[in-house]
Write a structure and sequence with these properties.
Distance between the termini: 31 Å
Helix content: 55-70%
InterPro entries: ABC1_dom, Kinase-like_dom_sf, Prot_kinase_dom, UbiB, UbiB_kinase
Keywords: Cell inner membrane, Cell membrane, Membrane, Transmembrane, Transmembrane helix, Ubiquinone biosynthesis
Shape: globular
Strand order of the largest sheet: 1-2-3-5
Transmembrane segments: 503-521
Pathway: Cofactor biosynthesis; ubiquinone biosynthesis [regulation]
Structural class: alpha+beta
Pfam family, one: ABC1
Number of strands: 10
Number of helices: 23
Radius of gyration: 28 Å
Largest sheet: 4 strands, antiparallel
Strand content: 5-15%
Length: 522
Amino acid sequence: MILLLADLARLARSGYVMAREGVLSLVPSGAVPPPARPLLHIARLIARPDAGSRAARLSAALGRLGPSYVKLGQFLATRPDVVGTTVARDLEVLQDRMPPFGQDIAEAMVAEALDRPLSSAFAAFGPAVAAASIAEVHQAQVPDGAGTFRTVAVKVLRPDIEHRFRSDMASFRRLAAFAERNSPEARRLRLEAVVETLARSVSMEMDLRLEAAAYAELKENTKDDAEIYVPAVDWDRSGREVLTTEWIEGIKLSDRTALEAAGHDLKALARIVMQSFLRQAMRDGFFHADMHPGNLFVDAQGRLAVVDCGIMGRLGVKERRFLAEILYGFITRDWRRTAQVHFDAGYVPMHHSVEDFSLAIRAIGEPIHSRSAEQISMAKLLSLLLEVTALFDMKTRPELVLLQKTMVVVEGVARSLDPQLNMWTTSAPVVEDWIARNLGPVGRLQEAGAGLGEVGSFVADVPALLTRAGRVVTQLDEATRSGLSLSPETLEGIGRAEARRAFWGNAALWVIALALLILALK
């Protein structure tokens, strides 16, 4: 109960910060229920008179609330159809234009992390060129051994960021657990598992050694893709709190005016964004999971350059097959097949009807099929999907949460470049190629070969398994021949548990006795 009160206090503080920074003052009275309007009036009274523009208010409020809230703002910045074009534009300030934490602090952190003076690692170390919720990036120069210098990007973690994030996530965990204990809908959505999945992904983002490894793996996976480029890692100048990579000269994908002035084809770029993500997810099972416009550049060759590999997602073969089948079913309007895939994957309980679920999938798919992204209301679509999944007892799949979130972000980025983009026709070549390679004749032969290999491995291990089984039977016979005995540590643990139970039982009896005595005296 104490923990819950602390979490409620944290939520109350969030509301106060939003009110104080003037964010709640932007909400019109008619948009809130009548019982909440007095609270909105109070929020306007306590708002700072110098709150500034809408963007300044959102940036200040989310910045004060911590990295978890800033991440939420970054996500909403890519969804103008959900929060509105104006708010989405205001939230873009959170992507890479947060206030830097100071040149002196950054230089000291780099020197400490690399365990050598800054001057011996870099010939020049410039001020921050981008600052986000978790880290900031500096441009620096390093000698290349030929008497010249090359430009690099140096990413430095914000001071004390891990403590602040752990505090937020601990509160989210307790609130999710409370919700699951008291709400069947929360249990169906598996809020605790969702929070844990998101916590792990962002915790990995705060260890820059893991990000360096992610860069290397993504670069290896995409080395033959002509339309995407991943910068190389400078391993000698990287560590847990510092990451040095190749500097990318290019135009940010969010700068539409500059892209047009440079002569880039925006429709082609929208296609590249969508298809490159699908190739990463389906072909490689390892995808960039933070593809907002601040992390995407277009270089002089017209390639999509990807930076900031702090949050990455993985999909197993089963999840990739499920994704391919679902997308292919929507593309071909084969609703029966799409529904059956949900049952085969175990996502829908077997006591439901495939035909009924097929009808529900059709209700979602038909309105959006063959329409441009401009005509699709993602808010309405997600609302309908939530109603359908609740109707058929579908539980949230933690391994797919990051994929679903990234797909929404990628679609939002592609839509900003080409409002007429049809995501289904754009996805079709990648999906069909994956299906041909993995579910066609060649894929079936490879699957059969892998199965034979597993059978062979099992047969080879049978003698060792039989030997271990015989040893276990012998030990069990010796242990039970004179009666089952417990170790001293086990007996001591049982004694402590019984003592605790007896203490609380006696305490409860004394409380009851005192209560009866008080009633009798009254």
